[in-house]
Amino acid sequence: MNMKNTRRSFVYQVMASAAGIALGNRLIWNIGSPKDSSSHFPGPAGNRDTLSWWQDAKFGLFIHWGLASKAGGDWKGKETGNIGMMMNEKIPVKEYEAFAAEFLPDSFNAETWVLAAKQAGMKYIIYVAKHHDGFAMYGSKASPFNIVDHTAWKRDPLKEIAIACRKHDIRLGIYYSLGRDWHDPNVPTKKGGWRSNTWDYPDEKNKKLEVYLANKAIPQVKELLTDYGPVFSLWFDTPEMVTPEQSKILFDMVRSLQPDCIINDRVGNGLADYKTVEQKLSNQVMNVPWEACMTMNARSWGYNRHDTNWKSPKALVSNLIDIVSKGGNLLLNVGPTGRGEFQQAELERLQEIGNWLKVNGESVYSAQRTPFGIEFEKSVASSTRGDELNLPEEIKVMDKSLDEHTRNAQGGWAWRCTKKNGKLYFHLFQWPEGKFVLPVDCPVINKAYLLGDSSGKKLTVRADGNSKTIVLPSKAPDSLVPVLCCEIDENKKPNQ
To answer: What was the pLDDT predicted at 352?
Structure first.
């Protein structure tokens, strides 16, 4: 008898039992309707409908909030990171637990958070329920190391956020750090423990990931999917050493508990409803559902008082447009303070983005990707499998001000295009001098105008040699990014 395989089979049976599913394809867990389900939630009928809704929504809020938010980028008088503080400073578990007990977010207000997202034009929220430090930012029964049981505050912010989301028609998704947990002794990581807690638990080779999964991760994911009403997305992070079998158990558990919930690719091992791109703009148009998650400042996911290198509102709107023109979603991050407040710079930017979307939202929500590709210096005609479009390296991440990127029109930041319902929307990052030259393969245009122009003035379309142009006002509109709307005749070719 192969004892190794026997032990392995037993371990997976234990994990599957914890997850409430069978090891095969047949799901046996059945909880009926999730608790706290509400008629206020605009729940879809089936996972594909959720994915379709999400692809139309385009824009969501990422909330990184936890114990490191209390430190705000400092530890014992030394500037450190934010959400990675425990690892950066090798803080022992016992010391970190004592620090956690002092967490008191006395200014937290779920309504304020959700309304800030709604006013920014966002359609969904992804809340970080547990990050790499292992501290649950909700009332977990699976681990006492959580915000309800381990702090004097005693409140469950996720429960309050879930209620506010349903009230204000914002869908709730949940982030869960899967393959990293610095509080648990049984979580190895790749490269010999490059992201493990080796200062408390140095024996990396003998850590048993399956024990952590069965005793903590799987029970916590189950809690999140059964105690907080409908969850439209489970946003896993850092699978690290998670095996294909373990990813499958988690994936199937989510499907069985909430069939409408979509899952990102960081559950690991090729299982996914959508792809995640982090802290950069994709250099390609992709034909798979995808989402870019990005910070508003230079690098900090969680609150860091030292990171004041904020992207401008124009850069943030331009990022959103660029992503949507390539078929993706933007998940824009905020890092609330330890007291539970959004930073003023975040609120200001959310407000400006929301103001822009109130005027120009029709060019973003439910919009399709560009039908052209010349704006990326290479046609998308050959990019049916997501081939790279060769965007210059310096514009993949917009940590600098947009002006630095728009100086060179050949660098790809002159305009972007989206399409919807017989209309083309040209987003003009640079205001053309008197005219906008249309792409050669642009369909016949019946009418052209600027979104938000209260005069309703129809713009002139004229032939200039072999090209067609739209005559524009000499002065750019007062907009972060002006949008030129062209109503087209899709049944006529350009030369007709």
So the answer is: 98
- Does this model's pTM top 0.70? yes
Q: Which amino acid is at 231?
A: V
**Token representation of residue 105:** 């977010």
- C-beta of residue 390 within 8 angstroms of C-beta of residue 283: yes
Rounded to 10 degrees, what is the CA torsion of 132, 137, 143, 145? Answer: 80
Compute the C-alpha angle 468/473/474, nearest 5°.
105
Q: Which two tokens stand for residue 468?
A: 């067609």
φ, ψ of residue 325 to 5 degrees: the values are -65, -15
The number of CA neighbours under 13 Å toward the Cβ of 483 is: 22
Q: Which residues contact 214 (CB under 8 A, 6 or more apart)?
A: 11, 14, 15, 18
CA distance readout (Å), 426 to 118, 363, 389? 25, 9, 19
Chain segment 391-438, per-residue pLDDT in tens: 333 333 333 333 333 333 333 568 999 999 999 999 999 999 889 999
Q: Are strands 59-63 and 124-130 parallel, antiparallel or unpaired?
A: parallel
Residue type, 415: W
